[in-house]
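Please check this one:

***
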Amino acid sequence: MRRLFLTILFLIFSAVLPIAAHPQSTPNNTPSTCDSLRASKAKVYGFHPAQLNESQIDAKGKELDAFWKQVQAAGPEGAACLKVMLAAETTDHNFQFDAGQVLYQMDPTPDSLKIIRDAIAQADFQETDPASYLSLALALSQQGVDIQPLAARLLRYPNATIHISEHALDLDADTAALFLYGSMPPAQATSALIAELQAPELFVRSAAAHLLAEQLNEDAFRTLSRWDGVDKIEEEYRRNDVHAVLKYQPPDPADLAQPKFTREQVLKVISALPHTRKEFDDAMSTRGAAFDKKLHDANLTQDQLTKAVADSEPIYGIANHTAFFNSAIATLQPEDFNTLQDARRKALFDVSDECLEEYLAFTQLMIHLINKLDLYKGYRAHQAFSEHTAQGSRVLSSS
């Protein structure tokens, strides 16, 4: 029942119209326009989805549709009024989240973006779709908004299953939070996750340690090497990942011999990767389509197709491109590490399995490069690599 209602809300908000180029009323009408919107809001909101039956959900959906059309029709005045109402609202978390979604579409200016962040930070995941929350929070992060409080909320959403219907993707809270912490500037994310290691809840500390291990910078390595909570993490896959990044594993010389791509070619490919949905779709429809046609015309077997992709130059992502992956490990230098970090962060432009796969591919590349260059050796154990350490590991899964 609740998911049905949240689906109705999604359809309403996805249909928000662009705001008019000019106000639809004069400045003298602003107070009366906003007063009218406030009155409508008071009639429509103040409900709890879980308390509504099916017929009430249908009726409420129509009321909400009419209200948000009224807001849209008010154009810039409607957006300005939403800011005023959000500033005054402290208890109706459904309105705060819904208004944040609409305001993002109507007026995504820097001032509004901060208001939206503060509004959706109050979201109740029992009544607000966490998938919509995650998507909006990621969009805010891409716009340069500090989303630390939004990411922290997901760490505190235990036993979550966040369903991303567009990609048939189910995320636990840990992986959902990865999208948000992973989209932040590395120093900011690392600082926030280090602070979460002091959280009173074990599941929060465990998730924070797991995400901190994937930051792969000096502060993260230093903190985790000195933290006494790793062995207290209950989930084996989390412990494995933390232990894995804290242990040096010598690279296989055979993987690094005769790289197909030079350092300059590797860096050029990385700089050309798509960082928005439009760039991704454009790459798919042009270079990607041409490559797919070439493979199709060659009438290759499945094994030959897999090898052709593994040997080819990446077009819209490095995942599954083994030759490029090994060339990057063989040729990149310590001064290129920031480039990899930036490319990994920009890979999270959408809540999708493709973006997640790309983020993890860059994570694997960074770990292998750290091992090849033996970076951060003061914080990582140099001993025989244990077979069980890699089992169930997210960060050390095969490239």
